[in-house]
Amino acid sequence: MTKPEHVFVDFAGKFVRQGDPLFTFYSPDLVATQEEYLLALRAQKDLASSSFERVTTGARSLVEASRQRLRLWDVTDEEVSRLEKEGKALRTLTVYSPVGGLVTERAAYHHGRYVSPEMDLYTIVDLSKTGEKTEIEMPYEQGAPPLRGTVNYVYPYLNPATRTGQIRMEFPNPRYALKPDMFVNVKLRINLGRQLTVPEDAVFDTGTEQYVFVDKGNGYFEPRKVKLGVQAEGYYAITEGLRSGERVATAANFILDSESRLKGAFGNMGAPQVAAAKPAEQLQIQLRTDPSPAKVGDNSVWVRVADVRGSPVHDASVRVRVSMPAMGSMPPMNSEAVLASKGNGEYSGTLKIPLAWTWQTTVTVERAGEFLGSAQFSIIAR
């Protein structure tokens, strides 16, 4: 139960600076929280000489927990220091303005009604962003130089019907190109600060998630999930998933159509280095490479084949084929190995992988020319 007692800013339309007092309020819960903090401080002092570390640690933890509860009331560090110095709970707490600006709404009154945390007692509009540079382009004057001006006022109110605000800008008009009630295209240049950005064409958007291709060297590109920030001037800000200095592929140097991106890279997102996708119904087929993950060049490939009961399949012809679809001007690539039987349903051989990539892999099992089954995998080569 909280009630304002003294109001310093008592009308809408008043300008306040950051740190100006707005009002004081009384709350029995706040007083109780201060008393708990003082009690915890006294207990910590009394137990400081204890020979039991658990006791002193517990006392410190109690003080920190009580101080954290005060912070939840927005009690400033200065007021906490005063509380510690005086050793007496403050009856009221002063709330200060977090920003400078114009007070547009006020719901705090002297000795007024009780308030709750979800209530907005003040609305303060920050008008400090005037002076931003802006440009006007005339739709009917293609190629003409733009008019350059500045923002000189931001209206503190929104239109409740459209939820839009007005900005007043000032432009020179030497050619009398600006006329009353005309429509123009306005570019407002806003300082967004230093952010990590990538070109727009470096981002692959699946519709629900966004990815970039990170250059890992030796021709290998890692698909990386990212979170996008603002978009401006042909760039996206990256808020998560990428570090400064990492190289990413763009459409200009890494041509991928949507289908090959999905098949070649995203089909294996979140899967292990070698993962089965669609094993044949009548066979259980397992695949592994040595080394794992695979490397560019020769790799040892092992396949185990069993029937639905788990019994090894002997004397079969097993082929492993890796493929990469055509990408832009690059033709499709394939490599194949015929494996030798090692007994107990295991087959092995050497598979040559041309370059670092996520390869679509097909294992085919036959016996005496009869097709027994196949399975699809993805092999990542680095």
Judged by helices, strands and strand pairing, the structural class is: mainly beta
Our Rg estimate from Cα atoms comes to: 35 Å
Largest sheet: 8 strands, antiparallel
Give the % helix: 10-25%
**What spatial form do the alpha-carbon principal axes imply?**
flat
Low-confidence stretches: 252-281
Order of helices and strands: EEEHHHEEEEEEEEEEEEHEEEEEEEE
Order of strands across the biggest sheet? Answer: 16-23-22-19-20-21-18-17
Mean pLDDT, all residues: 80
Number of strands: 23
General description of the model:
The protein has 382 residues and is mainly beta. The protein has 4 domains: 3-125; 133-188, no CATH class; 197-254, Beta Barrel (conserved putative lor/sdh protein from methanococcus maripaludis s2 fold), CATH 2.40.420.20; 274-381, Immunoglobulin-like (Sandwich), CATH 2.60.40.10. Helix content is 15%, strand content 42%. The protein has helices spanning 28-46, 53-72, 77-86, 258-264; strands at residues 3-7, 15-16, 21-26, 92-96, 101-106, 122-125, 133-137, 147-159, 164-170, 185-188, 197-199, 204-205, 210-217, 220-232, 235-240, 274-276, 283-290, 297-307, 317-324, 333-343, 346-353, 357-367, 370-381. The chain has an 8-stranded antiparallel β-sheet. Strands 11-15-14-13-12 form a 5-stranded antiparallel β-sheet, with no helix packed on it. A 4-stranded antiparallel β-sheet has the order 9-8-7-10, with no helix packed on it. α1 runs antiparallel to α2 (53-72). It is flat, with a radius of gyration of 35 Å. 16% of the residues are buried. The model is unreliable at 252-281 (pLDDT under 50).
